[in-house]
Write a structure and sequence with these properties.
GO terms for molecular function: ABC-type oligopeptide transporter activity; ATP binding; ATP hydrolysis activity. It contains seven helices and five strands, in the order αβααααβαβββα. It has about 170 residues and is of the alpha/beta class.
Length: about 170
């Protein structure tokens, strides 16, 4: 069946996006995660948070899963916000996952936790990962390197993991 045979709504129902800039609302931690699947139980939300490496920091919050995170999650660190976004995607359990620079703005410690969470999330699903660092996509089946809008390289991590050639203006 061709992709054109599906409605936009149908396609979106089967996918999740984890972007560099997370979308969070002035609501509780649980409420923000549940947006991935509003009918989810508390136990399912906790399980999604565990997969996203978010459960431990959530339990340290003053009201745990009932803690309000403020507009756009301002009461949380960048890594914590990103892990909530990943938990939301885990809860939705999409067939297709799009990661758009999901680790680019994180410090080293947060990046490790988020990368581990992403590795859990990517298992067994079709994923499109947009990243500048090859280390972010080292487990990919196929990597396409785009340079100035053109495909520069294509292959596995081993085939594309070599120093980039820099060009300087004359």
């Amino acid at each position: 069946m061709s992709l054109r045979d599906y409605t936009q709504e149908s396609i979106r129902a089967h996918m999740s996006v984890v972007a560099q800039d997370t979308v969070l609302f002035n609501d509780t931690i649980e409420g923000n995660i549940a947006m991935g699947r509003p009918s989810a139980t508390h136990e399912e939300i906790v399980e999604a948070a565990k997969v996203a490496n978010a459960d431990s920091f959530i339990r340290e919050c003053p009201e745990g899963y009932d803690t309000n995170i403020g507009d756009r999650g301002v009461k949380l660190s960048g890594g914590q916000r990103q892990r909530l976004s990943i938990a939301r995607a885990v809860l939705k359990n999409p067939e297709i996952l799009i990661l758009d620079e999901a680790t680019s703005a994180l410090d080293t410690e947060s990046e490790k936790l988020v990368q581990d969470a992403l590795n859990n999330l990517l298992k067994g699903r079709t994923s499109v990962v947009i990243a500048h660092r090859l280390s972010t996509i080292h487990n990919a089946d196929k990597i396409i390197v785009v340079d100035h809008g053109r495909i520069a390289e294509e292959g596995t991590h081993a085939e594309t993991d070599r120093p980039a050639t820099a060009s300087t203006p004359n």
